[in-house]
Design a protein that fits this description.
The radius of gyration is 25 Å and the shape is globular. 74% of the residues lie in helices and 0% in strands. The chain has 337 residues and is mostly helical. It contains eleven helices and no strands.
């Protein structure tokens, strides 16, 4: 019995090192870059419109996703926790990622509507009542994530092996749960809840983002053709070819960025869920840890790409960096030798 316990403890130590070594660097980078963009928007007086508030909310949710990233791989492991603590460590990261995804859909929808109806941009209800969608993208994910706390859980089927031992056995060190009580995602999320979240919320959100992106590219293609027809009399063939080449490069960049950011997460949502529902062993747990880190981390890069590709957000950062460089040079120049 003691040999089995020591083996389980050594495996858990390996898993802990794997989680922290893969999530902490990515989490710190995501948090710092999002905070940098938030600082750039907050310091600029020109960025005070509804679309900038939507993007600011997305960046805040990106920071929250970076904070929650180290906790997400733990959701696939069994831990000796009480049911209340088990609810907290599963519901809170789930809420933060759902809020991040809802904010991402809102930003894409606002940009799509602004491009599809540029002449009526100021009349969009998203701009006139921007507080309502901002409240919705945070409140609705919270309500859905709290459903297990309201009773939609498998507390009666809580697993009782692999964590704290049953009564009349030697207790594991640092075991804070009751004898036989083990925290698992299966005790918090029923299979129906997992399928509803993945295929009822996450998959439609990703498909809607892909559809809006494709629609924006089609609108841009139509506008490019109109510009080409207008400039056909004055622009030479070489200039029109450069415009076509620039559009093709834009389509290729958007496609590659979408596949690079969403591809790992789509793999994680399908392969990871199957590994969890099939009660995979140690190799399955390791695969779930790696998939969750890569999938969530790549998805959290999306708002950073959107922000760094916008000169309105990068110009304040450049000015800040130039001012810091000037101050450093002036301080070195004024320092007596």
């Amino acid at each position: 019995m003691e040999a089995v316990m020591m083996q389980n403890m050594s495996v858990s130590e390996v898993e802990v090192r794997l989680i922290y070594s893969t999530t902490l660097p990515v989490s710190c980078a995501i948090i710092l870059l999002n905070l940098l963009l938030i600082l750039a928007i907050a310091c600029s007086r020109r960025l005070r419109g509804a679309q900038h508030f939507f993007f600011l909310s997305l960046l805040v949710s990106g920071v929250c996703t970076g904070v929650a990233l180290p906790f997400i791989p733990w959701m696939g492991l069994n831990r000796p926790l009480s049911f209340t603590s088990c609810l907290l460590v599963h519901v809170f990261p789930n809420f933060l990622f759902l809020a991040f995804l809802c904010n991402l859909v809102l930003v894409h929808y606002e940009r799509y509507r602004s491009i599809a109806s540029p002449l009526r941009r100021g009349q969009l209800w998203l701009h006139r009542r921007f507080l309502l969608p901002l409240l919705a993208v945070w409140a609705l994910p919270l309500l859905f994530a709290l459903l297990p706390a309201f009773g939609w859980n498998n507390r009666g089927l809580q697993e009782r092996s692999g964590c704290c031992p049953r009564p009349n056995t030697t207790a594991l060190p640092h075991c804070t749960a009751l004898p036989g009580e083990c925290c698992s995602y299966r005790s918090v999320f029923p299979n129906s809840f997992i399928y509803l979240e993945v295929y009822g919320l996450l998959a439609p959100a990703i498909l809607s983002i892909a559809a809006m992106t494709c629609r924006v590219l089609c609108i841009t293609r139509g506008q490019l053709r109109g510009i080409t027809r207008v400039q056909r009399a004055v622009a030479d063939r070489e200039q029109r070819r450069r415009m076509e080449l620039r559009y093709a490069c834009c389509v290729a960049a958007v496609t590659l960025a979408f596949l690079a950011c969403w591809g790992p997460y789509i793999v994680y949502t399908h392969v990871g869920v199957e590994l969890l529902l099939r009660r995979a062993g140690r190799s399955g747990r390791t695969g779930h840890i790696v998939l969750s880190c890569v999938g969530i981390g790549s998805t959290a890069v999306v708002p950073l790409l959107l922000g760094l590709a916008n000169k309105e957000y990068t110009d304040p950062i450049r000015k800040l960096i130039r001012n810091l460089q000037k101050r450093c040079r002036n301080s070195h120049a004024s320092t007596p030798v």
